[in-house]
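Look at one such:
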Amino acid sequence: MSFQASYAEFASPRPGDTATSSRHLAPDCAGLDFFALDRGLRDLLGVYLPAQAHQHLLPHFQRMGQLSGGRLNALAAVADKYAPVLHARTRWGEDHDWIEYHPAYQEMEHIAFADFQFHAMGHRAGVLGCDAPLPPAAKYAFQYLFVQSEFGQMCPISVTDTSIHLIRKFGSPALQQKLLPRMLSPDLGSLWKGTQFMTEKAGGSDVGAIETIAREEGGQWRLYGEKWFCSHADADVVLLLARPEARLAAPVALRCSRVPRRLDDGSRNAYRIVRLK
């Protein structure tokens, strides 16, 4: 598709135009290069990025801008028509919930996690040929270009990125060694994506009011409760807030636990995805 009027023509009023005129519609963005069009972004990258990094990343910004108005735009339009589907059982009748995604969504995942590696670019070297992690200005510039066509995919990207940050900052050396190689992988077949389950009916933005209980049983922590509005519900690594049972009276005494989707023996962990919103 291509838009029927130039931006200049769209912005210029015509005799007889009214506030409800059918001409007051945004033109189609298909085929546009979002990086080439955005002079402000290009100028700011020259200010906030080191010269060597800016020169190295420029072709990648150009490619992302072309993808956003091209292939990514087309994939997003298709994926929007075919929402993910939650299945309660496997094809063999086993009680094992899983989410089915349209191939268009899966191709967008490949662009984000395998090609550009948004989830890893701020944490390790090797992404886009860089010998060090990308600076925040570069990472968020890539994301800014990406979301102009596909915003929904940015949630799994961001919660994986932030889960990696939390594990690097607060996780034990053993936990980091176990999780980070898989969470930083560009291989979708071995990648472990992350997320955070915080919100509950009793405590939306006020996480101090959450009711999920963390109970220590036999040297392990078990969690009891219901989370509400869980972004990226089928992530492999969940960081989840709960209230230790011994501190139920304390308003902000919370514990952050790492909840794997699959246990070490490969079996499904004992929590259930109720529905997709």
Confidence is low (pLDDT under 50) at residues 1-5. The chain has two domains: 7-173, 193-277.
